[in-house]
Design brief:
This protein is of the alpha/beta class and 401 residues long. The chain is 38% helix and 18% strand.
Length: 401
């Protein structure tokens, strides 16, 4: 007798540390914007690995690139260079519109860690050994390792993991006066998400981001743009900062960069990246030829004007449908976002809402205290956007959550 979903769930509960809630659904395969569980039930995937599956599940170009590269070489020491690594680096540098050098990582949190180290090293050399402080923001999320989690606002509510990285301050998002109150001659860097993801899908204003840029220029502070969730086409521009009219000094990437595979990067202007010296940073697996070959294939798809235009058009179409649904029901309180990064606040308990949507064939996640987060693959069509709206409408109009 084959094992049921509940059998697999029980095995997962026994095997894994209790850091995620274990869903009833056991996923088995995916294609494009849809996934199927072991019972062959189909779901519209509006999680996409949390904004990761940028070019969709089982993207043919990515699969072919993996098949080709895996028969050549998958790994070598970072001291050696490979064609995919160099080509991927050059592509991202060229597309960045201002960055000069790159370091590949295995994840977003590692990209943040590297950027913090670089900022502190540059400030130590150029502004003084006491210049170590970082300004981050309330409701921010930058990762789970100690430097990144210190910059993440929820750390202030998790004292059991202290002591954290010293010298990190959290200003109010979209409030330049709050930022100014923390700036001193000890400030090395400001790290900011153009759209706060885990905080509830909270977009910055252009005025705020451009104001931060001006403050960093005035006080010789490094501006770090955390484009990990909002970048790589998610909001309709390749780099998230391009949608807000500013250029950072360092940018962190991951998630959509690998189209479902673990890879990240941070890029910097050479005047800052040159502060690093041999041996001051590194990673065993980072920049390996398999992952960078995947980056080449993923980014080459995302960079195309028609791809990015689809994100904008489908995102606008989805937002319009959701706003119409808001008008037709008293269940939706607020809708926020850009491109295919959307947050919806409802009157319902978010846990119950997510469960009901899952039962109805739509996978989504929570952001912030109560927001329903939609981050589907960037290849979503208007037909699939209609499917998402229909499934959400069916659940919230029942009103029995």
């Amino acid at each position: 007798m084959s094992e049921t979903s509940q059998d697999w769930k029980n095995r997962a509960i026994d095997a894994f540390m209790p850091l995620y809630s274990v869903k009833d659904v056991i996923l088995q395969r995916g294609k494009g914007c849809h996934v199927w569980d072991i019972d062959d039930k189909q779901y519209l995937d509006c999680i996409a690995g949390i904004a990761v599956m940028s070019v969709g599940h089982c993207n043919e170009r990515v699969i072919n690139a993996i098949k080709d590269q895996i028969e050549k070489m998958t790994m070598c020491s970072g001291s050696y260079q490979t064609e995919p690594k160099i080509m991927a680096a050059e592509m991202l540098i060229e597309l960045s519109g201002g960055m000069n050098q790159i370091f590949f990582t295995n994840s977003g949190t590692e990209a943040v860690e590297g950027s913090l180290k670089l900022a502190r090293k540059w400030a130590h050399v150029n502004k003084g050994e006491d210049c170590k402080e970082i300004i981050a923001f309330k409701n921010s999320f930058h990762g789970r390792t100690y430097g990144a989690v210190t910059c993440t606002y929820k750390s202030v509510k998790q004292p059991e993991f202290a002591p954290y990285l010293p010298g990190v301050h959290h200003a109010d998002f979209n409030d330049l006066e709050s930022v100014k109150s923390f700036i001193s001659d000890k400030t090395a860097a400001i790290i900011v998400e153009p759209v706060q993801g885990e905080g509830g899908i909270l977009p910055a204003t252009e005025e705020f981001m451009q104001g931060l840029r001006a403050l960093c220029d005035e006080h010789k502070i490094i501006m770090i743009s955390d484009d990990i969730q909002a970048g790589m086409g998610r909001i309709g521009t390749l780099f998230a900062y391009d949608a807000f009219g500013y250029k950072p000094d360092i940018v962190c990437l991951a998630k959509g960069l690998g189209g479902g595979f673990p890879v990240g990067a941070f890029l910097a202007k050479k005047e800052f990246s040159s502060a690093f010296k041999y041996g001051e940073h590194g990673s065993t697996y980072a920049g390996n030829p398999l992952m960078t070959r995947i980056v080449l294939e993923v980014v080459d798809q995302i960079r195309q004007p028609e791809f990015l235009q689809n994100v904008i058009d489908t995102g606008n179409y989805l937002m319009e449908g959701l706003h119409k649904l808001k008008t037709d029901t008293n269940s939706i309180e607020e809708i926020r976002g850009k491109g295919l990064m959307i947050g919806i606040d409802t009157v319902y308990d978010i846990g119950k809402l997510l469960s009901a949507l899952e039962d109805n064939g739509l996978l989504a996640t929570q952001a912030g205290a109560k927001s329903l987060r939609l981050t589907p693959p960037l290849v979503m069509s208007k037909t699939e956007a209609d499917e998402a709206i229909d499934k959400i409408a069916h659940v919230i109009q029942k009103g029995d959550l």
